[in-house]
Records
---
Amino acid sequence: MHEATLTIGQLADRSGVAPSALRYYERLGLIRAERTGGNQRRYARTELRRVAFIRISQQVGVSLEEIREALASLPSGRTPTPDDWAALSRAWRNRLDEKIRLLGKLRDDLDGCIGCGCLSLQRCTLYNPGDALAAEGSGARLMLPRPGPDAA
Amino acid sequence: MHEATLTIGQLADRSGVAPSALRYYERLGLIRAERTGGNQRRYARTELRRVAFIRISQQVGVSLEEIREALASLPSGRTPTPDDWAALSRAWRNRLDEKIRLLGKLRDDLDGCIGCGCLSLQRCTLYNPGDALAAEGSGARLMLPRPGPDAA
DNA sequence: CCTTGAGTTGAAGTGCGCTTCAACTCCGAG
DNA sequence: CTCGGAGTTGAAGCGCACTTCAACTCAAGG
């Protein structure tokens, strides 16, 4: 009881993430696991934190690849300290702030567009997400929606 | 010569949405087009507004299916008036407000968690998927509680 | 030892939001 | 009338984030 490591089922239960997803994360290099003699995964408890970070980041709209890159900034040799995590979280916080700001702008623009009836026009600030984001965000690439790269 | 209707290429140029996407939207019932004798699509200019609404909504993280439902609330008989659009936009505005609120909460929680080191714990408000901050990105995924016979 | 439930793998499937392709038609300028 | 770019279709493919499946092994209780 309360052992040093977790089975995949235990990690799944505690994190709320399906085992299949955890295996998938591992394949992508987002989390790690040791193996028992019988080849079963055993997770260090710190992996719980990584999984939490992954899910939280996803809620902010970050892709797994980007999350992988972020996690790669954690020290590989030692167990990450609270400071290590704080550094990551700060970066995400900026992302959140920027995202909140953009949504606020979108909302205000939407209000404006209700009044002016310009909803269909490109010149409307609502309708040029790329420019609007690039023009103002020092935080760089934010919430470009899914549409393909050459939707031009 | 500023004609009454637009070809798919014209609509694509003016809306910034690829023709293939426009056909896809039509298949899903998000936009409509008349046909020429030769079976080519001709779009009423009001479709521009629908397309704009679609793209804006996607930025807020709404799925095409939900957008379809929203658009279905527009009057089918007549051309939607500014008031019709305003009603839709108001609903979206609420959505934006809610989303902004959730992101703010996420940010504050993240701050709190940096301090308390609870990033890995379920009791952390960050980690409660119930809020379904659906994020944008590839298809709004709900963080479904794991399917399966947990209860069984 | 036997059984049972949890875990293992690679491969294939799913859903969304499209894009690409092949094969064909339309339409307007010359 | 010819030509070529724009348009048409259904079917297939893609990228992401997973899930499901089949076939198998492991681990622990009786």
Note: The longest strand of chain A covers residues 41-44.
---
Amino acid sequence: MAPTPPLSLPVSPRHPKETVNQWAYRSLRQAVMVGLIPPGRSLTIRDVAAALAVSTMPVREALRRLASEQALEVQDNRRIQVPQMTVAKFRELCELRIALECHAAERALPYVTPARIDQLTQIDRRIDEAQAAGDREGVTIHNQDFHRHLYEANPHQVIMPLVESVWLQLGPFTRLALSKLNDFYHVDRHSEALAALKKHDLLALRIALEADIRDGITHVGTAELLSAYVENAGMVG
Amino acid sequence: MAPTPPLSLPVSPRHPKETVNQWAYRSLRQAVMVGLIPPGRSLTIRDVAAALAVSTMPVREALRRLASEQALEVQDNRRIQVPQMTVAKFRELCELRIALECHAAERALPYVTPARIDQLTQIDRRIDEAQAAGDREGVTIHNQDFHRHLYEANPHQVIMPLVESVWLQLGPFTRLALSKLNDFYHVDRHSEALAALKKHDLLALRIALEADIRDGITHVGTAELLSAYVENAGMVG
DNA sequence: ACGGGTTAAACGTGATCACATTTTACGGGA
DNA sequence: TCCCGTAAAATGTGATCACGTTTAACCCGT
């Protein structure tokens, strides 16, 4: 077996006023979210620090934070890796996402203003543009923006951090769903959600959201695709 | 106004094989959970490190982790404190807890065995004993054990970390609910839940759980108690 | 050629130090 | 007496180092 490659991370430019810690966290998070780090690949603090050209300290804090958000997994208190995915776990995460986000939408609905609906419509347009351009990462980002912007209509925000954690756990594997999704015609669930928002129709909103999430995700669980990827990833470590 | 007291933390004994980091995290978490650190009280890394008689490094990692779990709040990138509670936020957390835990129970139900029901019954007995002994902290701990042990029947666990985060955010304020609760006769929702488990009756389980959570929590939200505490705590900082 | 034991490299952890930024305290001017 | 500006103390951040443990490599014996 070939020795593990030296771990190259895409270094996004560091924002001004951003601490090294935040930058390392952001970089690693992004890498995990888009599936750049294969599950089972063991990360060492020193390696990541070298890849980012910083000292070990900010890196280990970033790694630990991601671990506490379930994005990474500390194996036996030694190795750190992206958790392995199983079909059952994937299903659990999918159902959790639906329950959590439907609840978030319900709690946000009373605070949704016409102005926010306009903003959501704009974001939805950006999703379509990215989809048309074949920009999968853009689709993911804008799709998350759409959901986030809906739930954050609620000014007493407590749910989003949990939602983000679930997104992070599903992240490495949703990229697959999107690639599959492009092949099919796919009804625009966001339009349905927007219509429900305009009518303040909670039930219709829940239905649209659940369908949207299932569209983006469940195909993977039912298809042989995930299994293949899971097994493949399992061999990488 | 009196100068802020020098922050004394109850130092639980350090487990063998436990890193300083883990110990600091556990100590701080416990302190937050039982409401020992008043909301608004600003914590400094050096102070906590001094109180625990360790260096600053493990402490800042513990603090950051608690912040990422929403147990603490980094104010303007300088001050760290237990977040202030508002009535609206409290309600959001309560509703979130219900939604999350009912979902967790639903996903766990198919895996609940008679053996586990027995264990749950034993834990429930311990709750009653603590209640009879007036041991509020014991009640809290065993109550959490009960819920955790139910949800963890599901072997593909992804929900508990989120539940723990919500518990942690409610923790500093539930102690009030319990003190109030002792004054009233209070139907044993856990018995109802156990009965529902034995019948594999999902709906009854959800109803019992929701009632249990509301019993333990919502009284605070409706009573003037929380408001009083919130305002009081707001003046502490 | 294969396996086990020894040794060296690698790693996580935690302490200490230096530096930049922020907060606090003090004192002078209106 | 009340601001406000300046200086000193305090704080977070990040780098470096030392130590104990774990992992990996290597060599010798069979």
Note: Chain B touches chain A at residues 60-61, 64-65, 68-70, 86, 88-89, 91-93, 95-96, 99-100, 103, 107, 154-159, 161-162, 165-166, 169 (CB under 8 Å).
---
Amino acid sequence: MKNKPARFRKNLLSWNETSNKRSMPWKGVKDPYKIWLSEIILQQTRVEQGRKYYESFLEAFPAIGDLAKAGDESVFKLWEGLGYYNRCKNLLKTAREIYFEKGGIFPDAYEDIIQLKGIGPYTAAAMLSFAFNKPYAVVDGNVFRVLARIYGIDTPIDSTEGKKYFTDLAHQNLDKKLPGVYNQAIMDFGATVCKPAKPECNNCIMNSFCAAYLNGLVNHLPVKDNIIRKKIRHLTWLKISAGNKVLIYKRTANDIWQNLYEFYLVEKEEKTDWNIESVKDFCNHVFSMNPQQINILPKTEQQLTHQKIKAQIIEIDFTEAPGTLHAQQWVEEDVLKQFAFPKLLAAYLDEP
DNA sequence: AACACGGGGTA
DNA sequence: TACCCAGTGTT
């Protein structure tokens, strides 16, 4: 009787050869640049959501030098809508570091690769196994779930102890001769068979030795003890125009949507019901100027992981730029779409 | 160790 | 609504 890691490994690779139908453009690719790009895009992002971004990035920047030499705004524009924009900032930083300081060559040692911005333990292991065929086990959401169930581990996966435990377990299970194939297979298995909800236990080739299945714990594993608190924010964006120019600001604060653009923002603690009179009063009070025209759009909402955004856009036309206004950048209406905006504003620009 | 960071899919 | 997704960086 083989030990459990060996049994799991054998079954996983067998499933991979006979039943794994998952197809992705970066699968089997060895080019470190493409592996890296795909892994950054896929952090906390579903494969189906990331796929088109991978294609468009590769089309715009076929090699790392193309990305390294690109301007910030054009890269953020390509990233627009994908979320977690810090990834984009770090993508650029690392591309430039590799291209301009390391001769365009990705490091292939864990200690070197982990130091690059945007690359943590998961991405480092992915690059080392996929691009360099080195025996590092990836530990992502799929791996936590599969191993927690197969081995019946209830240590919280978001605890320090849990991360260490599952990393060690993942390494014990890894096929050291085929690390890339194994890593790809366990993630595909987690995504298509050992799914978070309604896993395919009845058709699972592991069910004869899966601790969670045998003990009726499938829906209780893995354990996560992180509690997310959501706060509500009330945002009003004043789209201020003067002539054919529109006022925009780049978000720089340590907050959501950093490095993206927005209109003049008014944030309040409580919900506000704007009307023509209150907008006029606001303009006269804050800008010392009477608006020529006001258009109050319907309220909209967006759910983020830690925040619920209640937003409203108000279009305001002035005959000329208010002198008292702290202006950052006036741009022509028809070049607005060259800038990257948060989803809510991008949707407005697409469908005003 | 705890928390923030987006947008979309699923139940 | 609540949870999750090829996680990482900051405090």
Note: Residues 38-39, 41-47, 49-50, 84, 86-87, 90, 117-123, 126, 138, 140-143, 183-184, 187, 190-191, 196-197, 224, 228, 254, 303 of chain A lie near DNA strand C (CB under 10 Å from a C1').
